[in-house]
Amino acid sequence: MTTAHVAPVRTERAPARVRLRPTMSSDLEYVLSLERDPVNLPFITPWERTQHEAAIRFPDFRHFIVEGGEALEAVGFLILIGCRSPHQSLELKRLVVQDKGQGYGRAAVRVAKKIAFDDLGAHRFWLDVRTHNARARGLYETEGFVHEGLLRECVRGAGGFDSLVVMSQLRSEFADRRALGLELRA
Description:
Layout: E1 5-9, E2 16-22, H1 28-36, H2 49-57, E3 61-68, E4 73-81, E5 89-97, H3 104-119, E6 124-130, H4 134-142, E7 146-157, E8 160-170, H5 171-179
Parallel strand pairs: 5-6
Antiparallel strand pairs: 1-2, 2-3, 3-4, 4-5, 6-8, 7-8
């Protein structure tokens, strides 16, 4: 199992910490509550409990609880898929943060990139994001993800069909950002 990683986060109030720890079955009610939250529903396609249970057990997945703040309490969750991919292409399947605007999402993305490239040996780390999720797209862009393309009207949303933007970061791009001090150290 991947060990917990910690990233410092700067907010206007006080420096906070973020840590990813493996999700346990006892965490699933929290995970499901975040997915069902009306604030998050326009941006994700919720999973059934059995899908999360499988993601916790299946070796190709890493399912994490994002812990943050001084007390390192649960502030969200994150799922990686493709951890055993022979193509070394790893997907950031889902990132949901409870309290937006606190820096937890950015810190979780940085820790996820470190896990993807340093721990799991990814060559490519990719994700898709709904086109209307400008906040997340902006975060991923500033974290070095490159826009690769558009999957037009491929997921059903509340108001019809939504399109997805596919974004990725390559190991060489991550290394360049690390050399500039923009990524967590190995």
